[in-house]
Amino acid sequence: MNLESKLNGTSFAIKGLSGIPELRFPVFLMCLFIYCIIIFGNVTIFAIILGNPHLHIPMYIFLMNLSAADIIYASNILPNLLNMLLTQHNDISFFGCMTQMYFYIALTCTEVLLLEVMAYDRYVAICHPLQYLRFMRLTCCAGLAIAAWTFSFLITIGHTVLVSKLSFCDSHLIDHFYCDIAPLLKLICSDTYTVEIMNYIEGVLVTFNAFVFTIISYLFIISTILKIKSAEGRLKTFSTCSSHLTCVIIFYGTLFCLYMRPTSSYSPERDKFFALLSGVLIPILNPVIYSLKNQEFKVGLKKLMGKTLY
Description:
By secondary structure, the protein is mainly α.
C-alpha cells in the first residue's frame, strides 16, 4: 500500500515498519510486553513511595516524579505505535503529530532536569551529609520538581509553534516510528534555520548545561568517595548513587546519539534504531535499575503485595 496516497494537507503518515511487514507482528508483541512492564513497574514504584511515609525523602520524591514522567513518556509513543503495528493504519493528523512531538520534547527535557536535581541530591548527601537536611528540605525538593516540569513544558511551546508554522512539502511520509523533530524537518520546504537555532539553544540551555552540572557533581562525589579509607565504606557510599549514574549514562548516551548533530546528518535507519531504543529502554530503567538494587524497595514491594492480597 502506498502510504502517501492516503494523505491530505492536514495529516501525515508514519512509515514505521511498513517496508518490512514480516517484522510487524513480532515487534508488536515485543512492544506490548515492554509497555506493560513500563506501566506496571513505574506505577509500582509510584505506589510504593506514595504508600510508605519512611520513603518520603528527597531521593524518592525525585524518583517518583521520574516514574511519572516515564509513564507519560512511554504512553505518548507506544500506544500509537502498537495501533499502527496491529491495524496498519499509519496516518496521524497534523494536530496529533504536533501534540506527540510537543510531549516527547517536553518530557525529554523534564527527565534531563530531574536527573540533574537527583545528581545534586546525591552530591549533597555524599559530599555534605551534615548539611543535607538543611539544603534538601521537602519543600525545596517539591519546588525543584515543579520547576523541572513547568520549565520543560513552557520552553517547548515556542519550539512546537515554530515547527507548526513552517511549510511542508508534498510528501508527508515521516520515516520514523513517531513524530519527532528531525524527521519532521526533513519534510519542510521552507527555511528551517530558526528551528535549528532553537534546537541548539534548547540543547545548550537544557541538555548540555544539565549534563555538565551532573558530571561536575559526580566528580565531587568520586573525589569524596576516594577519600574514604575503607574499601567497604567506599563501596557502600558508591552504591547509593550507582543506580542514578547508570541511568544518566544510558539516558545521555541515547540522547546525544539522536540529537547532538546537524539535521543534515539525519539517518533514518540509525535514528529509528536509537529512537526505538530511547522510547522503550529509558522508561524501563526505573523499575529495573532502581528497584532491583534497592532493599527498601523490596521491603516496600512486599508490603504492597501483602495489602493487595489481603
